[in-house]
Design a protein that fits this description.
single chain, 6 strands, elongated
């Protein structure tokens, strides 16, 4: 799908009656300065300006290919917000892994598999977990729009959202609190420390807030074992 997106941009520039204007349109769509684009392409900053102003004739195929590659590369470094908007079925850059449990997994069994500790000590009805999504919290903050948020829930909202790259854990819980959909569980993978506000928000939402010290790779292995019923 990414190749199709590249072809769309390249084709639009190539076939445009005003290639410079079309280059500028896409550069601004990707929220890039002329300097950022030129640096990524390894060319002089004035070249981009000359193309956009029409002082330089339309770029050749190789230059356009290099330019489009730079657009996609720089977008990916920011979590692919533009690509995911144009390609709604594209896997979000912030999602590290996700899967479903057909019959569900008991909440306590899930926590034990992670070697986790539930920081929400208030007694709540136990839920079954029907899936999980491992999310890079920093990339999610940078790239997730409201229209993308549903994608992290997969087939069921009765799932555990596992957040990596967590320092204090306030932002993920604030985002969950602000959104109408609530997961069955939130897990922080190896946080530095958990903000008391995050725990308070978990209590308000009535969901477990679990901390695990497992690596991402080990979490995925544990999830695979749960799926296989081991």
């Amino acid at each position: 799908m990414a190749d199709e997106f590249k072809e769309k941009i390249a084709g639009e520039i190539t076939l445009s009656s005003d290639p410079g204007k079309t280059i500028r349109k896409w550069r601004e769509e990707f929220k890039l300065s002329q300097h950022q684009l030129a640096d990524s392409m390894g060319i002089s900053h004035s070249v981009i300006s000359d193309y956009e102003s029409g002082r330089r004739k339309s770029p050749g195929v190789n230059v356009i290919r290099k330019m489009v590659d730079a657009f996609i590369k720089l977008d990916a470094e920011n979590g692919s917000p533009v690509a995911s908007r144009y390609l709604p079925n594209m896997k979000l850059e912030c999602i590290i892994a996700m899967d479903e449990f057909t019959g569900g997994v008991d909440e306590q069994t899930f926590i034990e598999a992670l070697g986790g500790k539930n920081l929400n000590t208030e007694k709540m009805p136990s839920k079954r977990i029907y899936g999980y999504t491992i999310v890079d919290s920093v990339k999610a903050i940078l790239s997730l729009g409201s229209e993308d948020y549903l994608k992290i829930y997969g087939w069921s909202i009765e799932r555990a959202l596992v957040f990596t790259n967590v320092h204090f854990g306030r932002s993920p819980m604030v985002a969950i609190r602000a959104h109408p959909l609530t997961p069955a569980m939130v897990v922080y993978q190896n946080p530095e420390k958990t903000d008391p506000l995050a725990i308070k928000l978990a209590k308000l939402e009535g969901i477990p807030l679990v901390v695990t010290r497992l690596s991402v790779e080990d979490i995925i292995k544990k999830m695979d074992a749960l799926k296989e019923g081991k």
